[in-house]
Amino acid sequence: MKIGIFDSGMGGLSVLHTARKLLPHEHFIYYADENHVPYGEKSKEEIVGFVDEIIRFMIAHDAKAIVIACNTATSAAVKLMRQKYSLPIIGMEPAVKKAIDLYGDRKVLVCATPITVKGEKMIKLVERVDKEHLVDLVALPELVRFAEKQEFEGEAVLSYLQEALSYFDLSQYGSLVLGCTHFNYFKDSFQKIMPQVHFLDGNTGTINQLIKNIDSEMNSFSVEYYYSGKKVTDEKELKRIKRYLSRLDEMEQIE
């Protein structure tokens, strides 16, 4: 049996990156829906359709559990998918509570996609945990496009972030919640603009929740990669994926 992890594109590799450390004896399927990236600017109805198709694909490929490694897809579809399918379906939750618990003496900035920022799931989360009104939300949709092009740093990325964050007094924030799995590739760029912040994401919490819902197996770690249902075998594309994972190794050092 396998564990399925999917995202609109390459952001969910950051969740797979965490899973490899916490579940080193499992077989994984990683599915990047490259035909439809980015999800963050699609309609909720479109995203639900994409997610349903991917889950059916995962089940057909012997998945015992599925991780929706995308905050946008989680916000739009996880409730419906859990009602429809019986296997464990684990979604993402931005680490807002953790940020408040650890760094609640200062403000918290949560960055995500437009659908996640405006979604009912995020609104209810903030209402539940943000008793001191410390949390601000910002949508950064262009970061997904930069990530898909592997344009992780440079003047274009910095200029975009500086403009998008210019409406905030950045000196007030003690933590930055990465509410989109694509954003994990940009910690160094964020750090140049907000050198004082601590970074948090929902990856470890998601994989810990997965562990609670599966029977672990003792295999050698393996991953099959798919782009929108087509298995990745081309050496050029496998090297591209490897570059993403190497970038995550670098970003892991930034806390």
Computed Rg: 17 Å
How many helices? Answer: 11
Largest sheet: 6 strands, mixed
Low confidence ranges: none
Count of DSSP strands: 10
Shape designation: globular
Helix content: 40-55%
Query: Into which percentage range does the β-strand content fall?
Result: 15-25%
Task: Give helix and strand order, one letter per element, not per position.
Answer: EHEHEHEHEHHEHHEHEHEEH
Find the structural class using helix and strand composition: alpha/beta
Strand order of the largest sheet: 4-3-1-2-9-10
Mean pLDDT score: 96
Terminal CA distance? 34 Å
Characterize the structure shown.
The protein is an alpha/beta fold and 255 residues long. 45% of the residues lie in helices and 19% in strands. The chain has eleven helices and ten strands. Helix 2 crosses helix 3. The longest helix is centred in the first third of the chain and has 17 residues.
